[in-house]
Structure formats: C-alpha cells, structure tokens
Design a protein that fits this description.
CATH class of chain A: Alpha Beta
CATH topology of chain A: Macrophage Migration Inhibitory Factor
Low-confidence stretches of chain A: none
Number of strands of chain A: 4
Number of domains of chain A: 1
CATH architecture of chain A: 2-Layer Sandwich
Mean pLDDT of chain A: 97
Structural class of chain A: alpha+beta
Order of helices and strands of chain A: EHEEE
CATH superfamily of chain A: Macrophage Migration Inhibitory Factor
Oligomer: homohexamer
Distance between the termini of chain A: 38 Å
C-alpha cells in the first residue's frame, strides 16, 4: 500500500513523468518488496510562485 | 478539527464535488461525533498525467 | 483512485476509526461513483501538542 | 529540514505570496532555530470549488 | 482558511512548538490578511529514520 | 526541489528504509535529472488501524 506524493517544480514533460513513475515504482519494489500493483504515485506540479527555499520564491531566483 | 484531503482524478463536476463534501462531512459527524463546523475538506484534482498505479500513468491506461 | 488523508486529534478508538473508514468510503461511492476498491484512506493521529488553531496549541485550550 | 505546506484559497497575488514565504520562514527561524536554507515552503492554491467547511464548498458561501 | 502542515525532525520541545504556531500564525495574518481564527496548523514529528536528503537518512548523518 | 512523501504500513526495518531512500532518490535523478542534494524524502509509518482500502482497515484484513 505505499502511497507516494511527489512535488516537482513545473516544466516536466509527460515523457519525464512517465519515466519517473516507472523508476520510482521499481525502486519501491526492489527496496521493500511491495507488489507493483500496490504502489500509487501522485505528482504535484508546483508553479514557481508556489515554492520557496530560504524564504525566497523559486520565481525570484 | 478533522482535516480531510481528497485527491481525485480530474473530470468531476461541481455538482459531484458539492455532494462529495456534504456526504463526507456527514460521514465524519456520524462516525466520530465531530461537529460539522470543525470539518475542513480540501479536494485536489489530479491530471491524468499526474497519477500512476503499478508504475503506469493514468493517461496511459 | 480517490486517495483520502484524514488528520484527527488523538484519542479515537479503533471502533470509531472502523466506522469512519466505512462511512467515508460509502460517502465517496455515493457521491462520485468511484468503486469501493479504488478508495484508499490514510488516518493520521495528531497529538494535542501538534495541532493549533488561531495560533494556540490544542493542548493549551 | 522543516518542510511546510500551505493550502490557501485562490486569489493571492505574487506580492502576497512573496511576503508570506519571507515571514513564515522568519517565524520558523525565530521559534525553533532552524537555519533559513533548511526551510522549504510549498504553497497550494485551492479553487473555491475545492475547499469546504461544514460540508459546504467555499464557492457556495 | 489557510491550512498549514509542518514536518519537523523529532526533538522539538512543547515550548518550541507553542512559539512556532504563534509566530507562523502571526506571519500569515501579517502577509495575507487572513483572520487568526481561520489558520489551522498541523505539526508532524519525523523520526530521524524517516527523513532523507540526498538519498541518506537523517539518522545516518 | 523534488519533495517526496511516502506512506507505508508499519513494520519496515531501518535497513529497508535506508535502501528505499537510496533507490527512490536514484530513480528521481535518473528520470528527471534533479541533483541528488535537491531531493527530500519523508517516510510516514502507518499503523494498521490507520489505513483502509475498500472501506476496511488494514488491521481487519
């Protein structure tokens, strides 16, 4: 039942997301032995105005 | 103070969301006795390119 | 594929949680027509030192 | 390593978000002594059809 | 209706958490003008075996 | 800046978690080209009384 949430800065292509969920699912199978069909992944695209590090928005860097 | 987050695949109508929050709030009141005004619900719409099961994006199924 | 996360203040019994997930799942089925087996629910127990409203911890109220 | 997620109703300007992340980061530094560069903040904009209190969508209030 | 979730490494005292929620709530009021009573904050304590940066658990650093 | 949250049923060993964060971080690097030091992972252990599928708690299966 692993449920994975991944927040990414906007701009990823569908091809990158497709590869991401394949590889992350594989990583979970290999490390903890969860069956593939039990792995759910939610990707969240963050606008650059919606992420900050050190108190500064990503859009201002 | 129950705080509920619900991730749904895109495509739900406002009428469906209206019914969803009514019924989920009612379910919480009836099961744990929380007062209605203490229940907050956040709905998150997931694009089909942003959800995967078994390592495959929902858009590829 | 609805994925539900519910944050609750500590102190709920297992019987209450059992009822909660039954009723919330039913509410989702009835409102948006999702099949029962697609509904995942995560409950998170919050210590009273870990929830605040209006800037005051629940333990101080 | 504090990781902060803030859900807000839609409609905040970039200037407000810029101020929000500055001030929340400062609040964390002052209260728990975390270094600024360790603080990550994710803002999530909620549509008014995606937030409910007391079983009623924000768009219906 | 701002809903804030803060993940922190374990070890914070109640006094630090009390100050944290006071100051973060104040930061939100000052930056976006939300009323104090609308601000909910959830703190999540992370065990050092449950947080990783650069692929390494915090307990191994 | 990928921020990953992984909810797992309780019972994973530290060795499994160590492998999990190594492999998931590697999967993200390989798929989207994010630098290792930008990847944060939060693991959340779920009690079997705190996860449900199809309306039934994991502890009752």
């Amino acid at each position: 039942m692993p449920i994975v949430q991944i927040d990414l800065l906007e701009g990823r292509t569908i091809a990158e997301k497709r590869l991401l969920v394949e590889k992350v699912t594989q990583a979970i199978i290999e490390s903890i032995g969860a069956p593939a069909e039990s792995v759910s992944i939610i990707i969240r695209d963050m606008l650059k105005e919606n992420f900050a590090k050190s108190g500064t928005l990503a859009m201002d860097k």
